[in-house]
Amino acid sequence: MSHKKRTLSLIGVWLSFLWLAACSSTPATNTPTVDMDPFRTQVAATVLAQVTQALALTPSATSLPSPSATSLPTLTPYLTASPSPSVAVIRSSGTATAVTVNQAQWVAQSIADGTVFTPGQTFTMIWTLKNSGTSTWTAGYLLRFYSGQSFGAPKEISIGRQVLPGDQIEISIQMKAPTTTGSYQSNWVMSNENRSNFKEPVYLNIKVATAVTPSPTS
After folding, report:
1. CATH level 2 (architecture), domain 104-208
2. Is the pLDDT of residue 79 over 50?
3. What is the rounded CA–CA span in Å between residue 39 and residue 34?
4. What whole-number distance in Å separates Cα of residue 30 and Cα of residue 8?
5. 13 compared with 35, residue with greater pLDDT
6. What are phi and psi of 189, to 5 degrees?
7. Is 64 helix (H, G, I), strand (E, B) or coil?
8. Are 68 and 165 in contact (CB under 8 A)?
9. Whether this model's pTM surpasses 0.70
10. How far apart are CA 42 and CA 4, in angstroms?
11. DSSP 3-state helix, strand, coil percentages of the chain (rounded to 5)?
12. Phi and psi torsions of 188, nearest 5°
């Protein structure tokens, strides 16, 4: 923009010079007439050359192309197969240790459930149990009173010997019937040496009744 203004100023200066030269071309009476045509022709040629050069140096405005709307590429859908369920495999390091299970199975008992005793009558109760688990019962394993009526027996009975898985043992307990008539039940359970009870209890239920004296016949 400054170059264009400079060119226009230069053209204005030359035009002013030509106008002054034209005004001063009227000859005086006593002054000989000077022919100004060659001079005017040279000045005009010079001005024309300056204007041409200025126009050549002035860059012309270039119109920018208007942006055309570009269509977005069409996305091609891909069918994705649904993942099939997988099974996670958990691997443990080290040597696997076998888990032992304490389990007892009732086999038999010496006093049948529902047996009637007189008040205070003593008897011997024998439970036959099978080691149905995977652990070996040591001599420190116990048969423990769990709930109900203990019938005067100790709260814990040590088995006193080793019982391998699959073997059986008879546990004998001295008991005494209550002195009051009625129905009673005694619940017991096996446990290890740490008093950790098994899940399978055994029990005995009895009845206590007064003996009936037969009346004399006539």
Report:
1. Sandwich (2.60)
2. no
3. 10
4. 39
5. 13
6. -150, 145
7. coil
8. no
9. no
10. 24
11. 20, 30, 50
12. -130, 160
